[in-house]
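Researcher: Next entry in the queue.
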Amino acid sequence: MEFNSVDVKEELLQFLKTGFKDAKVRMNVLKSDPQTDAELPCVGINRVSDDEAAHIMGDYGGSDFDRDNLQYAEIHSTHFQESMEVRIWHTNADERERAYRILKALLMLFRPVSVQKGLLSFSMGAGKDESDFTGQVTPFPVYWSSIVITYLNPLDVQTTEHVDAISGFTSRGGVSIGG
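Model: Structure for this entry, 179 residues:
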């Protein structure tokens, strides 16, 4: 089995690392929220939802037969409506705001890159500022801001099986041909 889908978390992680570095902003980029204060300031990328959006009867996309290698392949396809929360974490509210504005600009630049990789309907929303001084979120004062990106991500799955060549057969009348 082979499958093709965009690993948005990894693509976004690499894009944001480069983007913040190019903007000369020290920012860790993680595939989750920070676990220690040493990881701050940072961007945490978390999956919010991953729902099938385009279910069609059987999701059958076609088949192919490779005569040279005697392989039969079937392709099954669908789209998933995915959402990722991209969250800035900082110990300084003013710096959080500056980083949030850079993040929003970087996400705008990521949109055409994601479309080239196969994503559809890329949008951003749900920006929100929050903070905690009680120690319930972290044992130190922390500020965060979130943007949720939503998009359609295609998933293509191909199954392949080797078939044996027919070397002969026997008819109902008992006549054998070949093998």
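Model: The chain is about 20% helix and 45% strand.
Researcher: Noted, moving on.
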